[in-house]
Queue: 2 jobs
Job 1
Amino acid sequence: MSPCLLNWKTVSGMLKRMTPPKDRAVDVIILGAGMAGLAAAAKLVEAGLEVCVVEARDRIGGRVHTVHDEATPLPVELGAEFLHGKAKLTHELAHASHIPVVDVTGSHWIARDKKLSPVNDFDGKLERVMQLVAKRTQKGPDRSFDETVKGARIDPEAVGLAKSFVEGFNAATSDRISALSLTMGSEDDEKAGRVIAGYDRIASSLAAKIPAKSLRLNTVAKEVSWRKGHVTVRCVSGLGKGIGEIRAKALVVTLPLGILVTSVLEPRANDKSRDESQKKARVHFDPPLKEKKKALGLLAMGNVLRMTFRFREAFWTSAKNVGAREAPELPRLSFLHVRGGILPTWWSTYPIETPLITAWAGGPAADRLLAMKERGIIDAAMETLARAFDVKRSFVEERLERTFFHDWAADPFSRGAYSYPLVGGARAGKRLGVPIQSTLYFAGEATAVPPDNGTVHGALESGERVAREILREVRPGRSRS
Ligand SMILES: Cc1cc2nc3c(=O)[nH]c(=O)nc-3n(C[C@H](O)[C@H](O)[C@H](O)COP(=O)(O)OP(=O)(O)OC[C@H]3O[C@@H](n4cnc5c(N)ncnc54)[C@H](O)[C@@H]3O)c2cc1C
């Protein structure tokens, strides 16, 4: 928006959301305006409670972050993109706000040795390995995915595909992720959808239910002092300036797992040895949250690399290195798996045809790429696409118009992409979500039970769960001060 188009109403509305909170008292304070925090706030406000949502960034949505760019045919997601499985609550919220969700369809392809071919029976191969994991998990104690599939008499290509899927999808390391957690869920979990108008539309639809004065952007929670029925949160501005405190009867913590871990498991005494970004979002709890230490130790924050490329044309729909029998199917390419490539997974926007293609890596592959920084990743991507479609690298580079990328691992307010359970931790998220003394409540994707952890619907449902828990304890009415 150009400054001259700002009228006073807009400016004062913006200022309200950006101005630091003066000391005040409400019923419930919510740390974080991601999907969990917004869902909790919307439900509590609807029930007549006064809330204050404290958000460190200058925007809502957290790990839902959409770029709307006039020159790009569809909004581009920097964070979450898909609705995984039933995602009942996400569908309901989208439906209620007339936000269209499109099913992901199309075909999977594999590129190896400069040859492109459809992946025959991708789901079947994955299914066979996961059935084996389920069978072996039933018989013994929880182990890692790698340990569980060791020595299996099963097609090695299927095992390779499954390992890469497990790491890519869960942002995990296959020798650390709980195999038991991978067996939780149902067949419906394979469906996927997309909010084509942008995932941020769902965040905005929730924010619209919360009074402007209840949402404090650019406000970083630093200290939480609490006792049963009383919470005081001290905050600083984005620039680190002290901006007062807020008091309430209850607190909802929706901080991402990486921030909770540094806040709860790593004592303040370590401050000197920590990097600045780690300190930025850390919250000091007094008294400390010793009840949460075990659960936090059984969960890990995973990394992903996601980069979207806008080209002049969707050149991948007409690759020459495809057999004549298969060629007519190529325009339906939705997913591309690159064997032996540094960027293993790609997807188009199919069934909507655009010149956008997204590169994705999770777990160890993401760690390697993120260490290369943005320029290095773009170079690797150009090389990967050129090899996959058997064209010159200059052919790909000449057609590249824009890239879209956010480094979630380096972002001080997320410190990673999303959580996964370590061996023995399949139910740790549930334990993380248990309230303390009817005063501290916990939501966020890491508190969801697999397979809903690490997802938007898991975060939304955890927000609604926490609102129900609070409403059983805290009555609307005069706030304590
Ligand atoms: C690249 C990427 C792709 C993904 N893809 C998908 C997908 O396709 N489908 C899917 O379902 N899920 C996906 N996810 C996961 C999904 O985005 C998250 O599970 C979900 O958005 C988490 O919501 P949340 O509310 O739990 O946490 P967050 O969105 O992280 O919200 C927490 C909020 O707390 C704020 N905060 C942090 N520290 C402080 C502090 N000290 N004081 C105040 N505020 C603070 C943060 O700024 C943030 O806004 C993806 C995530 C990433 C990163």
Job 2
Amino acid sequence: MPSGRVHTWINTLSYGALLAGASYALERGWLRVDLAQAALFSAGFWAGTLLLSPDLDLAEGSVRSKRAWGPLGALWVPYGLIFRHRGLSHSWLVGPLTRLLYLALLVGALLSLLSWLLPALGQALLLYLAQLTRAGVLPWVWLLAGYYLSQWLHLIADGIRPDTDFRRWQARPH
Ligand SMILES: [Zn+2]
């Protein structure tokens, strides 16, 4: 199983290859992507590579993606305790979603705490979040595409194939 450092390298090289391929396609007019879309895709990709790696299922110990959060890394310990290493957290569709939901819970809890401690700041942040939702779904699609690609590269490097998800579902008692 590759280490966190090797996963980061694999993702970095893949991103470089993708960038080269996309630049080539853009130059020839085969692809149309604007700067905002590319930035969102990249943000999703790097957040997924550095901060939201599937190996956060080891966050009860010391793992690279937990350390990347600095002191906030401790917030991922419950995630590490809930998810068995290379279990559901390492599935192709649901796995990346579990980390997004967990993150949404963390942000929600933090916002509630902030709006209780500093009502004005909490209100401003909520307004900002409402504005983000008004931007429509397209920005989220680009963000998610980058994020999911980073997760899938990790799973491929771990030797986990997409059909594992299907077999996992099939193996469930009905
Ligand atoms: Zn892994």
